[in-house]
């Protein structure tokens, strides 16, 4: 995999790093909603999510999201709504918070964590051969999600255009997006993110969003 040269050094602030990771979660949630309703997706946002998921050994924090916070712009804009500055899309917020819940359940299931880690390592090799966003890679990511996180009692029910959701490769693309959301949710937790902090550190998040704008 080609190393990423960061354009923008990641902030040292724990809250800022948590904000970037959380932006990845809600970027995934936003793209799931967009795919389900329109079948289309913002290419830069999509590429960033898939790269982050198949790159299982990033060289730095900023390499995870491609070296610049604008690669997470869709997610950062969603956090503006979460912080109360803009009107929120209820479906996107529901998907995002459920991803955080699923991440916590995954963390408490060491067997599933190991299983998922093995799958992602194989998918990284596949991505190095075919390219990150090749259909085979997306199908494998979707299958990995279906065989692990989809088996938990807590599940994400995606709503949208039924004909769109049943179209070719759409279930795989949606699940790949959800897998990316889990990847960023784990990163958020690793950086010290906790659900209670979303309430009590709202002002700090707003400052971080201002710095990242």
Helix content: 55-70%
> In percent terms, what proportion of residues is strand?
under 5%
- Would you report the number of β strands? 0
Task: Kindly provide the radius of gyration, computed on alpha-carbon positions and rounded to a whole number of angstroms.
Answer: 16 Å
Q: Which of globular, elongated, flat, extended, rod-shaped describes the shape?
A: globular
By secondary-structure content and strand pairing, the structural class works out as mainly alpha
Element layout with pairings:
Blueprint: H1 14-38, H2 43-54, H3 73-82, H4 90-107, H5 110-130, H6 135-147, H7 162-165, H8 170-190, H9 197-200, H10 202-212
If you had to describe this structure to a student in words, what would you say it looks like?
There is one protein chain. With 213 residues, the protein is mainly alpha-helical. 65% of the residues lie in helices and 0% in strands. Helix 1 (14-38) packs across helix 3, helix 5 (110-130) runs antiparallel to helix 6 (135-147) and helix 6 (135-147) packs across helix 8. The longest helix is centred in the first third of the chain and has 25 residues, at 14-38. The radius of gyration is 16 Å and the shape is globular.
Quick recap of the structure?
This protein is mostly helical and 213 residues long. The chain has helices at 14-38, 43-54, 73-82, 90-107, 110-130, 135-147, 162-165, 170-190, 197-200, 202-212.
């Amino acid at each position: 995999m080609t190393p990423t040269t960061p354009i923008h050094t990641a902030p040292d602030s724990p809250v800022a790093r948590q904000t970037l990771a959380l932006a990845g979660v809600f970027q995934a949630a936003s793209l799931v909603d967009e795919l389900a309703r329109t079948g289309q997706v913002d290419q830069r946002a999509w590429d960033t999510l898939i790269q982050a998921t198949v790159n299982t050994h990033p060289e730095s924090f900023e390499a995870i999201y491609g070296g610049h916070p604008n690669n997470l712009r869709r997610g950062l804009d969603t956090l503006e709504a979460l912080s109360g500055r803009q009107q929120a899309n209820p479906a996107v917020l529901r998907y995002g918070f459920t991803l955080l819940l699923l991440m916590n359940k995954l963390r408490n299931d060491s067997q599933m964590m190991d299983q998922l880690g093995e799958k992602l390592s194989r998918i990284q090799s596949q991505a190095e051969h075919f390219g990150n966003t090749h259909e085979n890679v997306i199908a494998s990511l979707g299958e990995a999600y279906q065989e692990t996180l989809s088996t938990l009692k807590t599940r994400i029910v995606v709503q949208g255009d039924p004909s769109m959701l049943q179209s070719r490769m759409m279930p795989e693309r949606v699940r790949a997006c959800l897998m990316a959301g889990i990847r960023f949710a784990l990163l958020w937790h690793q950086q010290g993110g906790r659900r209670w902090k979303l309430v009590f550190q709202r002002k700090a998040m707003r400052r971080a969003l201002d710095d990242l704008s």
